[in-house]
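Thread: quick sanity check before group meeting

JM: Hey all, I'm pulling together slides for Thursday and realized we never actually wrote out the predicted structure for the chain we discussed last week. Dropping the sequence here so it's in one place. If anyone has concerns about the input, flag it before I start.
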Amino acid sequence: MADSKRQTGEVVPLERRAVDRSNLPALLRVEWLLRENRRGIARTYMPCLRATPIKASPEMRARDEQMCREALTEMLASAATMPALRATGDALDEALAAEPDEGVIEACLAALIDTRVKLPHNLPVYLEALIYDLKDEGFPPAVVAAACQRIRRESVFLPEISEVLATCRETLARYREQQVRVVEALETRGKAERWLADLTASASDGGADR
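JM (edit): ok, ran it. Output follows.
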C-alpha cells in the first residue's frame, strides 16, 4: 500500500515504496469472466419467431409452437448460463462501484514498470504524475489493473501518461457497456426459459388431450 509516512510533495521512487501485488489476480477476475463468457453473452438474445395467425388451424399452431421450442432450445444451448451471467454481473457491479486506491495503482504500475527494458529518464516524476492523474480521474482499481495488463501485453514502449489514461477510459467504457449487456442477457434468458417451459407444458397438455 501507499506509504502513509510520505510527506506531501515528496517524490519517492516506486522501488522504495511498500507495494503489495497480492490482490492483482482478484482485480483481473472481471477480465477473466468477460473473456470466458463473451461469446455466451453475445449469443443470449430472443430469436425472431413467426407470429401465429389468430385464425390458424390447430395443426399450424402446433407446428409454429414446435418451431418456437426448437429456436429457444438452440439459443439457450449456446447462450451464457444464468450462473455465468450472475457471476459476471456481480463482478462488474463490484468493480465499477469500487473507489480509487493508490496502493492498487502503485502495484499495477510496479508490474508494468518491472517488465520494461527501456524506462523514462526521470522515472520518479513520471510515476508520481501518473499516480496522481489515475487517482484524479477516479478510475476503479479493476479498471487500472486491466488497462495496465493490456498495455504490458500490447505496447512495445512505455506509454505516455495520456496513453495510459486513454486505455483506462476505454476499459471503463467497455466495463459499463458489458454491465448493461449482462443485465439485458439475464432478463432475456429468464424470459426465454419461462417461454420455453410454457410451450413445453402446452405441448404436453395437448398430447395428453389427444
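AS: nice. DSSP finds eight helices and no strands in the chain. Helices lie at 24-27, 29-42, 58-78, 82-97, 102-113, 123-137, 141-154, 161-209.
JM: adding both to the slides.
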